[in-house]
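Bumping my old thread because nobody answered last time. Still need a sequence for this structure:
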């Protein structure tokens, strides 16, 4: 028997409206079926057009994750060496009193010695950085530069289009050509993929541009397997062909762009033959793609963030983001580009996060992507105080941060006081002094934006918290009270915070009634220009970048680690996500881990053969930063010269207690200060079978 959402039924069966919290562009609307106070099923809400009743394999198992036998249910205090995973249960008052005492003592000499570390374990505006930010601002702690996923591409959009904006995802269904660039949409953007399939059935051509032959590439008409970090070279060569064949919308360029003459000169330096040498693809394939893009209307580009995780990632996104304006694709609702829609949402972040609580202080900012080095830095005039306390929530840095050998060294410091808010005893939690059990999405209020569509979603709690779990907001309220923070904002409850997030710009009653609300945006947002840049135009040339001493035009920047530059490490490595994991979430859900099997390195037969590597053999992947052991998959999914280390497995679930981030570096992108996970040289050696 089905009950109406949020309403009790005679059978005690209730369906509660919610939202998926995970770092995915789809931001699905959920319906959680609850019977007798227990969540028995999590499904997609069919009333939400972007979800349309369908969930990915991962989130469809969310009830399994919530009631997992290893779910943390009470506070834990460390009893053994850091990293040993040895803890004892304590009550909440004991844990919070001791944590507050440590933070108070450190803050008394310099609150900047305290660092929050969080990212997108939840994308919610409330359980993410609302009460937490208020707490750390009031404390005066160091600020965190949250760069680990999308900052290079995000900054590139800001410099080119004026913000994280683009076409509305639903209009991809009516495109005639779709370039799926740097995205395995089947695994990471399922609901977009359904739109792409609809377009394909209607006659659209689908092209996948990706170093890896993904499941998405298998289903497209064409796969362009370029080398990692060469996307800008490909985009510039496409511009070259658009220019020489005059596949341009001169009227749109004249009226709605800035810097065309300079970009034209730059692009004419990139004939297809030059780009073919850099990208490792045939020049004929580049020419044909340019012809398709220049002569097909409407043409749409779906970018994703994998391609910006290299040295020149920001420049690459800038170059690609210029393409729709050159051909006038923005004139059509089904033309243009989408990387992120998050800039469309009028979130009142200052009201939520209250930076005014800093009261004139200007704490230093620590980049989360260099946490390995920064935890090991001594105090200095340039750096400031040594990091003495770390509060981790919504993240698992020991598994996900680059160059994890150094991250582990930092977390092992006996003089570092570490608190981790978590659902499970992750790699990071193993190094905590206290682990605090946090609620899941089924157990708290939250409100969500999206970076893949333009609907606001409200999440209602479907069940009472499991065990002694508390929400992030409750934990930070309790710490604030113990530290004597009596500002009224620390007493606001989660429903008040949800209402604060958008104020009057979104109908909150509609959110309560149906669980989502659509932003009133035009079908073709830039048909008449009106970009949210200072000039109101698509800025091929950025004065702001030039003022920073950077190139005002997009260009191809070779990777820091380019094959052929170090004979010891001839292979490029990228580390795309395993299909059934999301960053390091869901790795401990046994049904999903059973599907993935074990950590894998995909390697092309032409690279495996000379190394004597057989399919299924254990191998050692290594460079100067470390080594990682896993099983080899000799696979057509890897292009020659590039290996794919599928991630992100928890380190403790790996054969040697490491994961692929043992090999990645802490160097940063050209703009946005992001990590360069896919800018990494390695070699691979087979290991003998155990005797």
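Sorry it took so long. Here it is:
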């Amino acid at each position: 028997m089905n009950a109406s959402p949020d309403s009790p039924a005679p059978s005690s069966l209730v369906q509660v409206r919610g939202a998926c919290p995970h770092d995915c562009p789809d931001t699905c609307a959920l319906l959680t079926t609850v019977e007798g106070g227990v969540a028995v099923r999590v499904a997609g809400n069919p009333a939400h057009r972007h979800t349309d009743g369908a969930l990915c394999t991962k989130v469809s198992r969310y009830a399994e994750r919530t009631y997992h036998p290893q779910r943390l249910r009470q506070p834990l205090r460390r009893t053994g060496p850091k990293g040993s995973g040895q803890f004892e249960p304590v009550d909440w008052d004991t844990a919070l009193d001791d944590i507050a005492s440590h933070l108070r003592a450190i803050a008394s000499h310099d609150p900047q010695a305290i660092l929050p570390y969080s990212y997108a374990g939840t994308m919610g505006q409330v359980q993410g950085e609302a009460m937490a930010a208020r707490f750390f601002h009031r404390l005066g702690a160091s600020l965190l530069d949250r760069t680990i996923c999308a900052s290079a591409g995000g900054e590139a959009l800001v410099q080119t289009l004026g913000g994280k904006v683009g076409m509305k995802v639903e209009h991809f269904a009516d495109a005639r050509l779709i370039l799926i660039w740097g995205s395995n949409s089947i695994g990471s953007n399922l609901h977009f993929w359904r739109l792409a399939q609809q377009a394909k059935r209607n006659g659209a051509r689908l092209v996948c541009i990706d170093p890896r032959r993904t499941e998405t590439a298998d289903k497209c008409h064409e796969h362009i397997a370029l080398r990692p970090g060469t996307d800008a070279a490909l985009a510039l060569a496409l511009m070259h062909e658009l220019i020489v064949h005059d596949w341009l919308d001169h009227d749109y360029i004249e009226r709605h762009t800035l810097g065309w003459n300079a970009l034209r000169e730059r692009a004419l330096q990139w004939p297809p033959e030059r780009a073919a040498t850099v990208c490792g693809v045939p020049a004929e394939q580049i020419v044909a793609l340019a012809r398709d893009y220049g002569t097909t209307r409407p043409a749409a580009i779906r970018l994703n963030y994998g391609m910006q995780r290299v040295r020149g990632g920001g420049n690459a996104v800038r170059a690609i983001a210029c393409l729709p304006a050159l051909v006038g694709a923005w004139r059509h609702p089904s033309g243009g580009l989408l990387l992120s829609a998050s800039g469309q949402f009028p979130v009142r972040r200052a009201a939520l996060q209250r930076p005014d609580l800093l009261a004139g202080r200007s704490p230093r900012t620590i980049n989360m992507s260099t946490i390995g080095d920064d935890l090991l830095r001594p105090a200095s005039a340039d750096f400031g105080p040594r990091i003495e306390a770390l509060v981790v929530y919504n993240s698992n840095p020991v598994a996900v941060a680059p160059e994890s050998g150094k991250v582990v060294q930092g977390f092992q410091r006996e003089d570092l006081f570490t608190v981790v808010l978590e659902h499970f005893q992750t790699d990071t939690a193993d190094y905590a002094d206290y682990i605090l059990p946090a609620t899941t999405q089924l157990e708290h209020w939250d409100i969500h934006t999206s970076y893949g569509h333009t609907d606001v979603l409200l999440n209602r709690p479907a069940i009472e918290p499991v065990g002694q779990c508390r929400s992030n907001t409750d934990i930070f309220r309790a710490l604030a009270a113990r530290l004597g923070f009596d500002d009224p904002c620390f007493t606001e409850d989660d429903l008040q915070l949800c209402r604060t997030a958008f104020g009057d710009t979104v109908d909150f009653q509609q959110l309560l009634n149906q669980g989502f609300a659509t932003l009133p945006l035009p079908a073709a947002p830039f048909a008449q220009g009106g970009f949210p840049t200072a000039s109101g135009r698509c800025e091929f040339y950025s004065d702001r970048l030039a003022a920073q001493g950077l190139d005002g035009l997009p260009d191809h920047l070779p990777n820091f680690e380019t094959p052929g530059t170090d004979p010891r490490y001839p292979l490029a490595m990228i580390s795309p996500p395993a299909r059934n994991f999301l960053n390091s979430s869901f790795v401990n859900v046994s049904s999903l881990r059973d599907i993935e099997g074990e950590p894998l390195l995909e390697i092309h037969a032409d690279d495996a053969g000379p190394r004597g590597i057989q399919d299924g053999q254990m191998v050692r992947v290594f460079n100067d930063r470390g080594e990682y052991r896993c099983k080899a998959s000799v696979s057509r999914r890897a292009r020659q010269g590039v290996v794919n280390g599928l991630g992100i497995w928890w380190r403790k679930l790996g054969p040697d207690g490491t994961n692929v981030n043992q090999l990645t570096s802490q160097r940063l992108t050209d703009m946005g200060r992001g990590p360069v996970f896919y800018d990494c040289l390695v070699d691979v050696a087979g290991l003998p079978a155990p005797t």
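The CA atoms of residues 530 and 536 lie 5 Å apart. Let me know if any region looks off to you.
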